[in-house]
Amino acid sequence: MDDGERDRPVESPAEGKDKKTAKQDRRRVQAAGRQLDRAQRRHRQGIDRINREIESVRQARKLASLWGGNCCLFEDRVEIGRARFPLDDPHLHVEVAASGNGDRTKVHLTLSSSAGVKTVSLPGRQESAARTYAAAIRQAVASYEEVHRNKAATIRRLEADAAHAEADVQDIQTARTALFDEETRTGLTYTPVRWKLRAIGAAAATLAILATIGALSEPETETSTASSSQSATVTPTTTTAKITTARTTAPATTAPSTAQARPTTTKAEPRTPKTTPKPTSRRAEPSKSPKAKPTEPKQPKIAYEHLTQREWALIARDPDSHIGEAIVVYGVVTQADSITGAQTIRADIGGVKDTPDYFGYSNYPTNTIVTSDKVDLGELVEDDIFRARVIVMGSQQYETTLGGYLTVPTIEMKRGWRIGHQPD
Fold first, then answer.
1. Do 218 and 334 share a domain, yes or no?
2. d(CA 102, CA 124)
3. Pairing between strand 305-306 and 326-335?
4. Residue 315, SS3?
5. Rg of the Cα trace of the chain?
6. How many domains does the chain have?
């Protein structure tokens, strides 16, 4: 046995068994960590899905509509314009009556409750639709208790499922804590795959940045090297020329002077790069370029003012006195169809963003005409909620579906953002 084999440690069977056991423990810890990650992710997704279902059940569905969407029946209320009539009101009553004859026939839909009375007059051709709408209201009132009882039961069931899922998540967190304790006790570590990917990505980004810095610094090094080589070449040429001039003025012309002149000719050739006109012409090009055309003065930026609800009420009361004012408004689209066109909509507007009610509906006070020549209003549809920077254009009169005329404020949208949609 040589000295190398004598000095090499001999591994005992017990040590080999310990290494194998440690490897098995490491694999077990890694498998347990991956299983906990998958289970936690699955339960979180389940909780999010249950919460979305609860919100969907709590929202009141729209059951019927009339008069271009101005009369809407929901599972818990009736809306006519801005008036709301809850279906659980014991004094709620709906009637449909017709008056006149021939082309002048009118249909009157009257809704009364303890909160007040509201009557809508419709053309005679909508009598059938009005009676169908009234029948839907009566049916919704009759089934109100049952519908809300079923909703409450569904919400309780979903909340119980969410509570069980949260308890499962807590159990997973407890198991994760126990796994970390075992890692600390045994010296084993579990690194999730996402952490490894983040580390690899960070290393790759660092290498890319270093490579970019190196690539940017290379041209400067080459330029400095070239300049130093040119200076080194010019210096001997100048010296040799002086020596040659001194020797040519000597009275005797000998062979050594001729031999000395030959190196002068060969060393003078490198002076050519020094007189290359390329750098000079490049620097001179900007002076020869024509003068830039004078640009038009920039338009000053418009400062759009944020309003209070009272300030907007003053503008809506007399919009002709506020023409040209730049303001920020919020609103919900009430009409966006082929009648209004792609550059005009009708919306309920307010000066302050309205907080949706329990059922997710926003209520803005002023019926307004919105126009624009810069924003494509064709992207907005009925019940879209938006925020906009606008210019007050005054007032405008339009004909309603009942044959009457309304005078409403008019604003021009310069920029807008869609921030939501009314629930269906």
1. no
2. 9
3. parallel
4. helix
5. 43
6. 3
